[in-house]
Amino acid sequence: YVTLSNRIPVYGHIQHGPLDLWLSACAAIFGLSPIERADATEDYSVAAWYVEPLTIINSHYEGMVAQHSKWHVEESGHQIHVHRYPTGRASIETAGLPVECETGAITLLDYSRPFTSLHTKSNCQGFFVPHAAIGYEPSDSHHAPVYSPETTLGRLLQQEMDHLMSL
Predict the structure, then answer these.
(1) For residue 152, which of 23, 75, 79, 106 sits 20 to 30 Å off, Cα-Cα?
(2) Which CA distances in Å does 159 have to 98, 149, 156, 166?
(3) Between the CA of residue 102 and those of 58, 87, 99, 135, what are the distances in Å?
(4) pLDDT at 64 over 80
(5) 5 — pLDDT class (breaks 50, 70, 90)
(6) What is the pLDDT of residues 26-55, one digit of tens each?
(7) pLDDT level of residue 4 (50, 70, 90 thresholds)
(8) Are 45 and 67 in contact (CB under 8 A)?
(9) Residue (of 61, 67, 63) closest to 18 by Cα position
(10) Neighbours of 150 (CB within 10 A)
(11) At residue 81, what are phi and psi to the nearest 5 degrees?
(12) In what order do the strands lie in the sheet with 106-110?
């Protein structure tokens, strides 16, 4: 337990180990299937901070397929995942539409919808924000916006993500 400026409580958690532990830890958010199992004993690592109402995550993992099913939506579908891949990338299919998450781009993925994703070996940085915290109401729009670092909004989001990850 730490605080930011002695005013905002922050709870941190660091975990690393075999992939089976990662699969178990993520079970409420998505089902995972490794693409290729590494022989290493530490196949993933994650550092997470809980700053009400955000969950900030910096994770490293092997290539895998993830499925956020209707069951997962019921468990964790009240949030948006704002994230980027400093290394690696992901291809996502949500509502039949493809979304490419290139290295360095910022993606906003609404967890109120099922999706399937294919990840390379990656470092994923981002945060989960509850819909209610930002007044977001899921709409009929089935896309997940991706902001390239070459765009003005992409550069601004990158700067804010850099700042968030440096805290």
Answers:
(1) 79
(2) 26, 10, 5, 11
(3) 17, 9, 9, 28
(4) yes
(5) very low
(6) 888 888 888 876 555 557 888 888 888 888
(7) very low
(8) no
(9) 61
(10) 9
(11) -105, 110
(12) 2-4, 8-17, 44-51, 54-61, 122-130, 79-87, 106-110, 146-147
Residue owning tokens 């955000």:
54
Q: What kind and span of H or E run contains 73? A: helix 70-76
For the record, the structure tokens of 72 come out as 């997962």
Please report the beta strands in the chain, taking only residues with DSSP state E, as ranges in sequence order: 2-4, 8-17, 31-34, 44-51, 54-61, 64-68, 79-87, 90-94, 97-101, 106-110, 115-119, 122-130, 146-147
- The tokens describing 18, both together, are 């075999």
Which among 126, 123, 109 has a CA at the least distance from the CA of 160?
126
- Which position has the token pair 């109402």? 53
List helix spans (H) across 123-151: 131-134
Cβ atoms of 108 and 154 within 8 Å: the answer is no
Q: Which of 36-50, 81-95, 112-126, 147-161 has the lowest mean pLDDT?
A: 36-50
